[in-house]
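Ticket #4471: structure output looks truncated?

Reporter: J.K.
Steps to reproduce: submitted the chain below (418 residues) through the standard prediction queue, then opened the result file.
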Amino acid sequence: MSRARHAIARDRGWATTSRVVAIASVLAAAVAALPAASSAAAGSPRLATLEPEPAGFTLAVLGLDRAQLEELRASDRSGWPQWFSLHVSDVANPPVAARYALVDDRVELRPRFPLERGLEYVAAFRPGVLAGGADADGAAILEQFELPRVDVTPTTRVIAIQPSRGLVPENLLKFYVHFSAPMTRGRAYRHLRILDSRGREVELAFLELEYELWDPESRRLTLLFDPGRLKAGLKPHREVGPALAGGFDFALEVDADWPDAEGNPLRQGLVHEFWVGPPDYEQPTPESWAWSQPRAGTREPLAIGFGEPLDGALLQHSLWVVELGEAGETERRIEGVVELAQGESIWRFTPNEPWRPTRHELRVDPLLEDLAGNSLARPFEVDLAGGGSAVTEGSEPAPARGPRSGAELWRRSFVPAP
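Returned output as attached by the reporter:
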């Protein structure tokens, strides 16, 4: 293990565990060929597949007796994965997130996300752990299967990476990777890496989470750099340093063989090159933002220039416009379209309807962040032992500007020009 890997692993307290499961039956078959009854004897609880298609895949345990069903109706469903679960490749892996339902005389398991074609899955049923069972250490009944891959021409591609501008701070907090179609979950860190100027992989650059940070449609992935290497005072920062070094070129590489939700590879890989500048410890200052005010009776955009790139995902919902009543007692949120420009340093809002010559208000969520995680409310680098003061490299802690008035919304009124 390298010095970098050893220091970070020790600080995180990583450990490995092993599980032993007694196997009574293992059936290797495609989902469509799974039998209605497994190797368990007729009349005994058994596994069955009710819906084989990935989007609606449903497993069931059949043959439960009346006493078991009554126990299940009165039990807490949070414990059901202990006796009935679905795993990728091996039961030693964490169970697939799923919803459970007791329907008539059977228990159904439906994955929360579509299963992936081309992957091997293992369904596990542990009768001894089942409510009413007497043998908690007994055998597990396993069913192995693989969803058949549909051969098509790859079409999914990376459509954007944010920050999109080629210059980022040394303490960059995250990348967003946008795809044209839903992607597989649980494989990101195998297909993404940071390369230095010599093409060498930067070890453990990202915070590798068990549950990756995807949007609900599985089209946008959030990649967090390891905060332990970013925050001054933490052991990884002292012993290893940031993953990125100011004054050098780096690249984010995306593998072409990363499968999408249909199990097909990307149309092509991608190498996103960027230059690293000095760290950024300053909070965004709305008072210094530049405005381009729209005219009444038009759908001209309201444009805000931040003077620096901000978090591209947060910009989609952290700023909004309301129209105020004459006395300011009523308000109406203005619906429209948000566009970002010049590397997420400009925000444009185009209303669905023409502006009216009345008082409006721009509102900004205080949690809006810059590329280094500094928000309007507080800086990312905070010396908690020093009373919440901001920390800058190579200097004494300086007073922090936040939190802003108890982290209230930032507001600015305007009237569209005639």
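Triage note (M.O.): checked the attachment and the full token line is present. The chain is about 5% helix and 30% strand.
Status: closed, working as intended.
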